[in-house]
Input
Amino acid sequence: MPARPDLDVTFYDHLAPATTAGVYTITVEHRLTKDGRPVDATAELPRAEGRYEIRAARFHLDPTSVHATYPAAGAAGRYTHVLPHITLNRAILPWERQLLGRATVPAPWLALLVLAESEAVDDPDAKGEFTTRPIGQLRNPAEAGTAGPELSGDIDDDLPCRTIDVPVDVFHAVVPREDELFHLIHVRDVRTAPQLRDDGEVLTEGEYAVVAANRFPRTPGTYAVHLVSLEGHLGRLAPGSLPGSEHVRLCSLWSWSFTNAPDGTLDPGTLLRGLVAPGAEDPENLALRHTPASGSAATPEEQYARTRLHHGYSAVAHRTLAGEATYAWYRGPFSPLTTPPLPTATLDGPHTTADHALIYDREYGVFDVSYAAAWTLGRTIALADPDYSAEAVAARRALSDRAATLAALGSDPDRARHDPDARPAAMALSELSSAGLGRRLVQALRADLRPEPVPVPATRTARAEPAALLADPRARQSLSAVVTASTPTMPEWLERLALLRGVPFNHLVPDPRLLPPESLRAFRIDEAWIQALVAGATDVGAHTSVDRDLDPLLRERLARAPGSRFPAAGLLINSELVRAWPVFDLLATRGGEQVGELRRDHLAPDILLVLWDDVPDSVTIREPGQGIHFGIDSEQRVSLRHLTGDDIGYPTGTEFPDPASGRTVFDHLRPGRPGALPDVLDLHGTDGFVAALSAACGADGELSPGQLALELVNAPLEQLLLPAPTAEETT
Output
């Protein structure tokens, strides 16, 4: 599976509507002037006046306005370092209404509140629940000590709306301050092909409004997220601004819930770091080979064994033809180094046994059974497939029959010009259509009757051998036609086999110690091993000398298409990361160009195999991502990004706060309520997060909402695998 393309996303600070929602009056007057001076009219000119209303969402939010939420509704996972957010299809929505008493434009009227269990009267279990009440009870609660919003204008108090009651201390603890609202809402402009992300969010082209929360769900448990209207609550957002009130009634336009369960989920970043950690010291540690014992070899025999292990071989049990039990060396198609090509005569067939592919080390008296095992495996896989084996046998029989027919025709001069592919009576029709037939027929009828001479027996020649038929263009063309007609699916079947489909895992990785749990191994492909595998399948059905002589025609038909290549390199990952996140981005390049991915398969729930058509010089593995979400990394810091220039949006390689300071983003939180863990960002307080982050980014003044969103994008972790530096690179 190819890696998904990168997103093309632009963040904007806000959208400023030409006119906000409300009732407006238009007055049209006629005035006469001359040279800039008014002219009195004998009769008063008519005056026109009209009223109109611009409506926008106020107490209800259409479900089609919600594009996505993060975390997704009902999700459970590790969200300790995440700021929940909601994405709205209508990009202008957060700025369509004007907050009473606020002349500053733009001034969003929405906020996203994250509430834990028992923090909302109407939603004690934090399930995203609400109470439906008439708008009149929202504005003027009947319950003593409950403050509703101060709303103006013509409002139908009988219409229902979704409401929640929140204790005043909880409200002041989690609600953004007046000067913080501006930084928590921005516009996302997506310009990319539609993508289905792993959390179900479909990123499609367009403009969206994004409302982010200011609270990290640091404590394990269930949380409810409510998109609330702050209209009528301006001036009440700071502590101490609601004296005498015990609860605040809010209009909840949208709500959902999620569960933060950090102990019950896997951390993909930690798993990914662990996979590539051995390569930090030496990239060769990620090669698919055994790790020899420490220390130097004491004997030549030990050095020989160490060399074999370094070359990727494993020792396997082996029984000789004489019945002796011993061991042999075996290496599958995955090699930690470049393998030399085999002599072409080694795999020229057809063969009926694997003896031709055995390699014998005379010095140590040990067999290398790698290619013999590959040939036998290819033959076994082919015979296990009844469709393939039946087609292979039928093709060889049809080819043998045609060769016999051509040999018989070639030995008889009168029949040699017959086409065995022609339909019955086609020769007679050819004679009838030949030139001069009518004249010859008339002459024969006018001639005197006389006895015919005894025919002279035709001189027969010896039958041609099947191999000799291949030198005759006409015979070769006829035989090739038979092969093509008899093998409709064999070429495609062998192509799949060349990608190692159907090959048992223990033939790919003969020893589990080569790929232990939580490991990543890179390898090159031994092309000769795949050739032996394909040869074993191709040799099925070859039993006679005729099959041997005609085999070049069958191999010519089954040869790979021009331009197609065997796999050249690949990657194996054995990790819980694969089980938990089956889909994640993995990009291989060579010289800056992407390498073609031939296969990506899960050989087991926790084992991933990737094959490429070339040997990459870099491989980038990205932590599984869940769309675009906001937060901090596992070290509780922000990985800073460029805000200007050609590298805008790309990581700068620095973090905030500086790791050397020992501080984290959690040092920029509001003081928690008594007995509660601090978890709400203090954007503009005494130790304001925005000011400190702006200084770390080198920005002139404060970061804008779009810039803050860019810095808080919690991008997936990337791990880059590179080859070992050469001697010249290390000097």
